[in-house]
């Protein structure tokens, strides 16, 4: 089984090193494809070529995945998959452009440098090739769990869009403080800010463009800022109750923790 990976960024490079198969990289930037190939011992392929592969994997920004599938699905002989991070548009595009092939959407819920981790998967049309790819990922210590495209994309509104908006808003709003004034909560937020701002800006921009969630954070912050003492107590109790209910729901979910 050979694999063409379209997109030679960090996620495409991670996937190339995580699967037990010969891989080739194609990218708008030939130097990026060459660097990814060097990193995992793969080859470089033309972005627009007639060579076909057993598997075509789209590792492109989520805002471009549907178009990329349309352009590249014809190069796949057995399976088309993606690791873009948004599932509904990817699954729909794969079904439209590769109706007779195996199809699978993957979302590694971690930065590549923090692998292994939890991977959400939608097996839209499974078979031996996609089964083998999943087995390879699991053999490297990743925890794979199945979901639906709708469930995944709804979850990302909180897991990514709202969470990132909250952390970035704190980073923009907070002032520097003299040494010694830090509290455990402030320290925790500062660590989150350092982690988020150490990433790639375009990735975070694409998440906000793709998933709702930031508006809800803004509305909640406005409600807190406008509240008097009694209102704030009510908001605090509502947050406590709502969060406890969410934690209870998560404890009953047997999928395990995700990042």
UniProtKB/TrEMBL annotation:
Please report the stretch or stretches of sequence annotated as the Prephenate/arogenate dehydrogenase domain. 1-259
Asked if the record carries the keyword ATP-binding, the reply is no
Keywords in alphabetical order, please: Oxidoreductase
**Basic and acidic residues compositional bias: what residue ranges?**
244-259
**For this chain's UniProt record, which GO biological process terms are given?**
tyrosine biosynthetic process
Record's PROSITE patterns?
A: PDH_ADH
Question: Which residues lie within the region annotated Disordered?
Answer: 240-259
Q: Which GO terms describe its molecular function?
A: NAD+ binding; prephenate dehydrogenase (NAD+) activity; prephenate dehydrogenase (NADP+) activity
Gene3D superfamilies, per the entry? 6-phosphogluconate dehydrogenase C-terminal like domain, NAD(P)-binding Rossmann-like Domain
The name under which this protein is listed is Prephenate dehydrogenase
What is the originating organism of this protein? Answer: Natrinema altunense
């Amino acid at each position: 089984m050979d694999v063409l990976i379209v997109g030679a960024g960090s996620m495409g490079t991670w996937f190339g090193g995580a699967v037990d198969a010969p891989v080739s990289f194609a990218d708008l930037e030939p130097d990026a494809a060459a660097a990814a190939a060097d990193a995992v011992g793969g080859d470089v392929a033309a972005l627009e070529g007639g060579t076909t592969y057993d598997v075509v994997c789209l590792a492109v920004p989520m805002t471009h995945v549907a178009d990329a599938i349309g352009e590249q699905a014809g190069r796949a002989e057995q399976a088309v998959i993606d690791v873009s991070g948004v599932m509904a548009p990817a699954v729909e595009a794969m079904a439209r452009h590769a109706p007779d092939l195996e199809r699978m959407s993957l979302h590694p819920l971690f930065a590549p440098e923090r692998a292994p981790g939890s991977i959400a998967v939608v097996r839209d049309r499974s078979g031996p090739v996609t089964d083998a790819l999943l087995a390879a990922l699991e053999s490297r210590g990743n925890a794979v769990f199945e979901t639906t495209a709708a469930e995944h994309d709804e979850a990302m509104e909180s897991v990514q869009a709202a969470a990132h908006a909250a952390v970035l808003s704190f980073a923009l709003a907070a002032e520097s403080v003299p040494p010694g004034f830090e509290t455990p909560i402030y320290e925790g937020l500062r660590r989150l800010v350092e982690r988020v701002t150490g990433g790639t800006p375009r990735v975070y921009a694409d998440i906000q463009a793709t998933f709702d969630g930031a508006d809800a954070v803004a509305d909640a912050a406005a409600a807190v800022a406008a509240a008097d003492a009694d209102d704030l107590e009510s908001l605090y109790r509502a947050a406590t109750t709502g969060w406890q209910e969410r934690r209870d729901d998560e404890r009953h979910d047997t999928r395990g923790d995700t990042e």
